[in-house]
Amino acid sequence: MPTAAEKSSAPSSSTPRFRQGAGRISLDFVRTLRYRGTATAVDELSDPAALAAWVRQCGPIRAGRIAPPTAAALTEARAVREAAYALIEAARSGAGADACPGSARRILNNSALGAPPAPQLSNGQLSWIAEDPVSATLVLIARDALELATSEHADRIRICAGADCHALFLDTSRPGSRRWCSMGTCGNRAKKAALRERTEGR
């Protein structure tokens, strides 16, 4: 199945609505609560149509229109997102994934029981299908969060050093010293701010 990083590098005829490139689909999904923990936090999953748009852009299913889900499905999606965040934060801590609250574990375990998008090969091309793309993508997200938090890569999950960003990402750099969710955004802003400080200090 294509990773979030691979899909984010694919060419697009329009500017993507949602951020990608965190390295795992569960981390990209957690990012839909932007500026988490700050006074300027914004929930990008503002309504069912926004959830459908995220699944269309960031999930593996590319064919066909994805209809807006129900309000209940949006509530479930937000619950999966927050459970994934709680698990990943526990995995990043010294206590590890076992420190994840039981309620978050139950949400992710229950969601992971469903059927994820299924692969289909046609004319040499691989695609992904599901009767309910939104529900199937939530299954994929829950499974990915569970796998990531208990894997050897858990200690490579970072939080962006950008002021007020707080986005999570998987550091796949060889030295393990990546600081920014994106060099094109937070990294670039930090470099410009540092340059201004040096210039003004002369």
TrEMBL record:
PANTHER family xrefs: BLL6575 PROTEIN
Organism: Nocardia arthritidis
SUPFAM superfamilies, per the entry: Jann2411-like
InterPro entries linked to this entry: ABATE, ABATE_dom_sf, Znf_CGNR
Pfam families: ABATE, zf-CGNR
UniProt protein name: Zinc finger CGNR domain-containing protein
Location of the Zinc finger CGNR domain: 156-198
Signal peptide location: none
Domain of life per record: Bacteria
